[in-house]
Amino acid sequence: MRRHTIEPRPDWQRTVEEQGLIYPLTRHPDGSLRPYWDESAYYSFSLPEVEALEEVVEELHAMCLGAAAHIVEQDRFADLGITDPRVVARVAESWHRRAELPTLYGRFDLCYDGTGPAKMLEYNADTPTSLVEAASPQWFWMEERFPGADQWNSLHERLVDAWRRQAHLLPPGSPVHFAHSDADELGEDLMTVAYLRETAQQAGLHTEALSVERIGWDRISGRFVDERLRYIRACFKLYPWEWLTTDTFGPHVLDTLDNGGGTGSTCWIEPAWKMLLSNKALLAILWELHPGHPNLLPAYLDGPRELATTTGWAAKPLLGREGEGVTLHEPEPGPEPGPGPGPGPGGVPPVRTEPCCYQALSPLPDFDGNRVVLGAWTVGDEAAGLGIRESSGPITDGYARFIPHVIL
What we know:
The protein has ten helices and 21 strands. β7, α7 and β8 form a beta-alpha-beta unit. α2 crosses α10 and α6 packs across α7.
């Protein structure tokens, strides 16, 4: 793994916008616009390196499924902050019927610098974004700048195939609706959903687009409907499950949830059991089930424990994306803080009062001042591609840049 600088292509902004990346720039707090799609640099990997990372990703995915089974079987929903009995019941049912439910994709965030084992930072298997740039503009960039090279990128083919393989799980005779939120100002959610809709169409499915805010509720039939009053029997939503179940219409979602076997009226994609894989408590449960695993970082739910005096720790809210609410803490001398809220002994910073996961601090690799995170994609149960984000600070946030890669 190496970082290289390179001259951006002439008119690169127009090029990537035509390829679906309509948000190539990011507005920063000082009002300036800076590249989000940044092709002034790229990363190169060797093929054996990528093959090894693919194995790591698929092993981690299998471990996450095992952790989900553990959460359901041991009734550990409270550790994830899921306490509503109705939500617990529907998620558990969704897990038990998962073979009957369509599921699509996820993204691991990995800490890796080309040496040593990759470390899992988190997994978003419900509403991951940065998909468009990883699947499309990145591939076309490689073909133009490095003809004959390769890339860890089979996203498009695998997504189309996933829709095709799971078409029989969708309600017959009904279109698949694709929903994003109108609250998305940048257009990232809109284009992610539009791209996934395109992959479904290429798989031969009939699709319709709408926004979450325009989904209606027909009180007479007790069903969700679109703007033309057609029943919504299957819906891909780029809208987190923790919002879907707690919004005003949340009770209707639970009442009409199709968890397979014709048990409801709306089949949501991703399915409800994906809540288990997009919650930071998963990190602590993985460490509990696989202590010492080379691709995991120590993580706990009751406080930083020994991390306070050894590696330091990152405190991560159980729910949240793009680094929101994450705080980093260097190790402090003195006794370890005890579990629970309140200040720890020895001057150690207090354990946070809101539910958090306390994960060992693993500073992001620094390439000439650029802190890098690998976003490794899964489609179904298989590794499917790579997207790289860089940040100037220690936390990958909404101001991070997307950097393309090649296999050389």
